[in-house]
Amino acid sequence: MPGIAVIGAQWGDEGKGKVVDALAHDADYVVRYAGGANAGHTVAVDEETFKLHHLPCGVLHDRPVSVLGAGMVVDPWALIEEVDAFAARRDPGTLLLSSEAHLVLPHHKKNDEGGGFVGTTGRGIGPAYSDKARRLGVRAGDLLDDEVLRERLERLLRGKPNSTARVGWTDVDAALRALEDVRVRLAPWIGDGGARVREALARGERVMFEGGQGTMLDLAYGTYPYVTSSHPTVGGILTGAGVSHRALGRVVGVVKAFTTRVGHGPFPTEVHDDATLARLRGTGANPWDEFGTTTGRARRVGWLDLEQLRYAAELNGLDALVVTKLDVLSGLDELKVGVGYAADGSPVYETLPGWGEVAGISDRAALPAPLIAYLERIEAYVGVPVAMFSTSPQRRDTYGEVAWPDAPAAVAS
Ligand code: IMP
């Protein structure tokens, strides 16, 4: 049976974790295929809030195997810390780190400090992918073999003598010593992630591909150069998880009811007036306010950009949309949505009526009519059905469902 993909349809932080989390209780495998600790998923379960960076949200459930795919760049120290912190609260289950995944090493983080002109998350992501492309990278599987690791480190130190020396990796023995502990911890997790996922698909098991970042941050198709260094779009799944196109039975795009972006770069529907800005961003008092999970930076916020969303739907072949955070728009008299751009690139807006409070409503029929009309406008413009939407950070305030490819698609609005 083919799997299901959950992809961010904007600039990241769309609330993918919540959708993945809702699907994960039926999943056998949850696979991350791109990015690394630049991702930050916040998932609220009852009164508890979990923040995940490398780990797929499947860890919040007992059953699925969590796979860190070959397309990822994994910070060994941060991964161990994350697993240990998680394990102190819940059993993380089975973790599989693909041997082809690249390691984020100390010089990568050093070289990413300050975020540069892109305003990166500073997690060493770009430098790690850059070493990968230059054939200087060290992969997870290299940690398993003394000789291979020594050879890889020699090449790295020869290729980048200055930046490695700056973090104390002055010779191969120093580098080996620095990696000693993480090799022991990571070894039991390392394996052929791609083969395991392909076998699971062939057995008819349920596989979910969990995207990090978002479509507009794609290295090729996003707002280059203000992008991440991987491919969060659908194409990244094939290379990043080691599966063929047949692995994709349904592709789901997650979209926030408005738009946010962290870091620099184009954002046509960004708002600058203080009242709307404060309204959409929140104060930072709640974990779901618009402040970065990974960096704590205040996110830029703006109106929903339907033309941008249409592009994401076309590029990824979206079968269904999930709309999150509708509650944040509650109480605004009217809402704007971008419906294309003028010749100078500025957005053209359509104005839609707002709605009142939705907190505490748990019956779909009792939801305000303008909220349903908002969802219908999205569907009509983008040409993709809204399968699921949410009106609070809690699991219980989620309407509709995203169905697995072996079940008929559910439509929420
Ligand atoms: P990098 O991925 O750390 O190299 O950052 C590149 C760009 O992607 C920056 O604008 C970051 O703010 C943005 N970015 C990376 N990961 C995320 C994410 O998970 N959510 C939102 N923005 C992200």
Structural features, described:
The chain has twelve helices and 19 strands. The chain has helices spanning 16-24, 76-87, 106-111, 125-133, 146-159, 161-166, 172-186, 193-202, 235-241, 274-281, 306-316, 369-382; strands spanning 3-8, 29-32, 41-45, 48-52, 65-68, 73-74, 95-98, 102-103, 190-191, 207-210, 248-256, 259-261, 300-302, 304-305, 320-324, 334-341, 347-353, 386-390, 398-400. The longest helix is centred in the middle third of the chain and has 15 residues, at 172-186. α5 (146-159) crosses α7. With 413 residues, the protein is of the alpha/beta class. It folds into two domains: 3-202, Adenylosuccinate Synthetase, subunit A, domain 2; 255-412, Adenylosuccinate Synthetase, subunit A, domain 3 (Adenylosuccinate Synthetase, Chain A, domain 3). The strands form five sheets. A ten-stranded mixed beta sheet has the order 9-7-5-2-10-1-11-15-18-19, sandwiched between helices. Bound molecules: inosinic acid. Residues 11-13, 38-40, 118-121, 123, 125-126, 212-213, 217, 226, 228-229, 262-263 line the site of inosinic acid. Inosinic acid is lined by residues 11-13, 38-40, 118-121, 123, 125-126, 212-213, 217, 226, 228-229, 262-263.
